Amino acid sequence: MRELTYFVAVSLDGRIAGPGDDFSAFPVEGDHIEMIKRDYRDTMPKVGLDALGLTADGSRFDTTLMGWKTYAAGLSHTNDPYPHTRQYVFSRSRSQDDVPGNITVTSEDPVALVRGLKEQDGAAIWLCGGGALAAALVDEIDRLVLKVNPVVLLDGIPLFAGADYRPQTFRLVASTPYESGVTVNEYVRSGSTP
Fold first, then answer.
1. Structural domain spans, the chain
2. Cβ-count burial of 187 within 10 angstroms (0-12 exposed, 13-18 middle, 19+ buried)?
3. Which of 18, 69, 135, 144 lies at 20 to 30 Å from 126 by C-alpha?
4. Average pLDDT, the chain
5. The whole model's pTM is what?
6. What CATH class is the domain 4-189?
7. Which secondary structure element, helix H or strand E, spans residue 70, and what is its range?
8. Tens of pLDDT along 38-57?
């Protein structure tokens, strides 16, 4: 069965973006970026891959899930951020006419969609963001890969926005600190094997 992985940058106080969906406090340079280029290339947008002369093959993640705000955050750069994956954008107010044809806009229940995707063959599924979508899918997340940035935002979008209190238990399987100050922590749901 395919895994759902929430791979995301987060502040020390658990924010994935500042107020107004501001991501600028998270460093985009440093030695942790080499790890992303090497191990998580499928999470790099096409514009970044092209600028670096890299390609992504969908071997780690072949499907990307994101909320509309996460998708819209990159519209100033591209309207097709991850063409090397199947992309699903969750929205109750937007339609398929608002995106290119190879992206699926859906108002479907995210849990039902993810359960269906997990039954299909393929690589892992990447939950790109945002916090509300992550909260809706918290029971389906098999793996958390958190790029913990050395910054406190105090406000903004939480890692899980608007979730009801339901403790979820994960087990730390790897933690790698980088000179940039970023530490990448990888967790699997308790009871899972790494």
1. 4-189
2. buried
3. 18
4. 93
5. 0.94
6. alpha beta
7. helix 68-73
8. 999 999 999 999 999 999 99
